[in-house]
UniProtKB/TrEMBL annotation:
The keyword Transferase applies. This is Class I SAM-dependent RNA methyltransferase. InterPro entries: DNA_methylase_N6_adenine_CS, RlmKL-like_Mtase, RlmKL-like_Mtase_CS, RlmL_1st, SAM-dependent_MTases_sf, THUMP_dom. CDD domains: THUMP_AdoMetMT. Residues 44-155 form the THUMP domain. Keywords: Methyltransferase, RNA-binding, Transferase. SUPFAM superfamilies: S-adenosyl-L-methionine-dependent methyltransferases (SSF53335).
Length: 377
């Protein structure tokens, strides 16, 4: 097996969480401009795709160099041994981005890279005619930052947030990768109760259940690199079988999702069923102000609506006040709320133990953390 320079891409704000996930899997990492680099072979490509919960994609760095002219871009792209990655029938769309660089026309850069790879492959495979691109897909990206070109191949295909359990989504679902990050940041362990009082389509509770039973998030989906001849089905099958062995379906979980809207509760139930947690996650239609429990040391994670319209904002402010009141009755519980509201702590009636800046798509938010009292020994 060969060793590749690999890259786990992360959404803005999640870089350090992705990096610690990659480290926890046993790799040495290097983080640069929001990208988490590590090294690995074919099996590692399959493993990281299957297991990373908070990364967007896993890519192979095919080449890196400086380029200031289109000629340079063409020649240096052609020097890369693309035939090591791409079979003669590979489909290889090229996408691009350029930031603070002399070569700033992205369409031109894309077509030059495409032409250079075509030329390289034709020579390597002794083809005079065109390449029909009828085979497996290799999405190529040319990314130029301050004249440094990075050429990468996407091993994931669809973004890793697509786990395959979302049947329906409602209005403002959280991306699965961010939901998993919230659960990780809450430091919840499967022996503690877990509640999302704004569960919407159920993303956070489903991600928590997958973490709780150690289920690989990518187990039920496909990846572009599964079809690549040099990785081979055997490796993927092996990595999937290992994941099946590592899953702990017997781990009891106490996970509850509630929402004011009964239609959302239905959607969440459908998604949980699809994810295989029909009997494991409980759902109820309930307002956050009616939260009650007799249990101790639980964890609440949720993202209430942020409120974009006037009128709506007043209702939401009242709800945050209710939330502060209701959770203050349970001092052993830890509460983690993702919100873009600047006045959140004032309304909640308590300063957060800690805040962490995160982006929900392009919306700047904070994860307001109210840590519970330490469990008595
Ligand atoms: C931003 S969405 C949450 C999305 C969810 N995390 C997901 O991934 O689908 C906010 C949810 O809060 C619910 N909600 C609004 N007011 C509420 C209240 N007072 N009590 C409980 N849920 C409420 C809405 O029905 C909506 O589903």
């Amino acid at each position: 097996m060969a060793t590749y320079k690999l890259l786990a891409t992360a959404a803005m704000g999640l870089e350090s969480i992705v990096a610690s996930e990659v480290k926890d899997m046993g790799y040495e990492t290097q983080t640069e401009n929001g990208k988490v680099f590590f090294e690995g072979d074919e099996r590692d490509i399959a493993k990281t795709n299957l297991w990373l919960r908070t990364a967007d994609r896993v890519k192979i760095i095919a080449g890196e160099f400086n380029a200031f002219t289109f000629d340079e871009l063409f020649e240096k792209t052609k020097e890369i041994e693309w035939e090591k990655f791409l079979p003669v029938d590979a489909e290889f769309p090229v996408q691009g981005k350029s930031v603070k660089s002399t070569l700033h026309s992205v369409p031109n850069c894309q077509s030059i890279v495409k032409k250079a790879i075509v030329e390289r492959l034709k020579k390597a495979y002794h083809r005079n005619s065109f390449l029909d691109e009828s085979g497996p897909r290799f999405k190529i990206e040319v990314s130029i930052l301050k004249d440094k070109v990075q050429l990468s191949i996407d091993t994931s295909g669809a973004g890793l947030h697509k786990r395959g359990y979302r049947v329906d989504q409602g209005e403002a679902p959280l991306k699965e990768t961010l939901a998993a990050a919230l659960v990780k940041l809450s430091r919840w362990t499967p022996d503690r109760p877990f509640v999302d009082p704004f569960c919407g389509s159920g993303t956070i509770v489903i991600e928590a259940a997958m973490i709780g039973q150690n289920i690989a998030p990518g187990y039920n989906r496909e990846f572009d690199s599964e079809k690549w001849p040099w990785i081979g089905e055997d490796i993927w099958n092996e990595v999937r079988e290992q994941a099946e062995e590592m899953a702990n379906y017997d781990q009891p979980l106490n996970i509850l999702g509630t929402d004011i809207d009964h239609r959302m509760v239905k959607i969440a139930e459908q998604n949980a069923l699809e994810a295989g947690f029909a009997d494991i996650i409980q759902f109820e239609q309930r307002q956050v102000k009616d939260f009650k429990t007799t249990e101790e040391n639980g964890v609440v994670v949720g993202n209430p609506p942020y409120g974009e319209r006037i009128g709506e904002i007043e209702i939401i402010e009242e709800m945050i006040q209710d939330m502060g009141r209701v959770f203050s009755k349970h001092p052993t519980w830890s509460v983690y709320i993702l919100s873009s509201m600047a006045r959140f702590e004032t309304l909640y009636g308590q300063p957060a133990t800690k805040k962490r800046k995160l982006f929900n798509g392009f919306i700047r938010t904070d994860l307001f953390q109210f840590w519970g009292e330490r469990p008595k020994k």
